[in-house]
Every structure is written in structure tokens, then in C-alpha cells.
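Work Package 3 (structural annotation) set out to generate three-dimensional models for the target panel prioritized at the project kickoff. During this period the team completed the workflow that converts sequence records into C-alpha cells, so that structures can be stored uniformly alongside our sequence database. As a representative example, we reproduce one entry of 283 residues exactly as it appears in the project archive.
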Amino acid sequence: MGKGFHAVDGLIGANLADLVSDACRAKLLNVTVDAIVNDSSSSLLSGSYLSNLSPIALILGTGLNATVDLSVSAIARPKFGVRPAAWFSAAERVLTNTEVSLYGGDIFPRTKWDAELNRTHPHPDFQPLEYLTSGGCLGEITRLVLVDAVKASVLFDGATPSNFVPYAFTTETAAAIERDNSSSLSRAFAVMTAKHPLPRGQRYSTSDLSHIKHIVTLVSSRAAAYIAASVHALYQFKFQHEPKSSVKQDIVVSCNGSIVEKYANFLARTQAWLDILTSNMPA
């Protein structure tokens, strides 16, 4: 919905199960959809097969989401909609799709580049935490910083790289640059030259590339810190509603998505922040 894909046009308010069933029927497939499970809840269920200590799942790729396993008593009764009294008598736990991407707008510090991304986004203010942390936005945040550096003639002798329009500098490019630990930054040079060549035959200097890598690393490191804070908040909320004996229990966070799985050192940086946050928890 918030990714700018046109596939959603005309589908707002539609029943997804009916849409899938109708499409299958049109292809003469005898399929009935009884349930649809979203990405983060699926990850939590999958993770529970690997570890029974996985009460939280995180999705971080193009977008962001998280699910947490909670006691039914932790959720206000109206949130469950219309259900028979027998369900409430029997149910003990509920997988809660947090839609965490919608939060954080008034919590996390934001820069002028974040404000610019939000202002020009097709859905401003819709998913503030996602705009600060996801693969769909990290590259664009970096590009906005670089554009200002070019305007100030701090980088590339004031020359704007080719194909430097909004969202053209991708998070994949940012990740490739951040992975380059060579002294010459040869991989970064190859990536930038191939995707964003400088005009008039200019070449990226090692100093330019070093600055790009520094900016990329700052943007991704901030995202890791914000993700860690968000996961920790879910952890805190969960155990505020669990038996006291569970409060200090170690947990496993089930993860899925290109950023958390493949972006250079992102998972390790997130874990480092979580270690700091949990070490400061009261006994």
C-alpha cells in the first residue's frame, strides 16, 4: 500500500481472500482461501519451528513490519472485533501484527533530508519509521545528502552524477559501497562509475568515494539503532504483560528481508544496540 506500486489501485477495501479465490477460479483452479497471514506473522510462525524462544518477528527489506506474540489480556477487547464469548474463554495468546512502520514520527530524531524525503513521498507521514530505516528509503536519504554536498561543491567538484534523480541511488548501491573495505575503494569506484558516472569524463576520487561511504554508513547505522530501539520497545511491552518469571527470559527475534539478511553488518549493528539496551534493563 505504501510502496507506490500501482497493483493496489482499485483494491482498497476489497476482500483479499475473494480476490485470490476469484483469480484462481478464472484459471480453473479449485482453490478456496481460508486464511491469509502477513509477512511478519509468517516469519514468527516459521521461526517458532527453529526456536521456542521466538516471540517477536521482524521484516526489514523494501519495507518494515513486526509481529509479537502477546497474551490475549494485553490487547483491548474491541481490537478483536466480534467474536463469540467461548473464543475469549479459550484463547490465551495472539499473534499481533504491529504495523510498526506507522510509528516513530514523533519519537525518533529526523534530519532535514528525512523531512525532504517525507515531503516528496507519494504517501507523506504514512509510515515514518519505514521511511527512516527500510531498503526502499535508505538509498534515497543518502542521495539527498549527496545532492546537498554537490550543491555546496564539497563533492565531485560540484558536478552532479548522471542518473541522480529521486530513488535512482538505490540501497543496493549503498550496500555495495559500504561492503568495500579496500584502501582504494575500487568496488565503490566501479559501482558509482557504472550506475552514476560523472559528466565530462570526470573520475571519482578516493576522497569522494570515502565521503560517500562515510555517509552511507551513517545512514545505515542510524537505521540499525532505530530498528533496535523498536524491537526493544516491543520486547518491553511484551514482558510487561507476561508473568514476572518471564521478564528476564532470553528471546530470539525471527528475521526476514534483504536489509536485515544481506546488508553489510546491519544485523550485527542492530544486535550490538540491542545488547546495550537490554544490559541497561532493570532486574
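The chain is about 45% helix and 10% strand.
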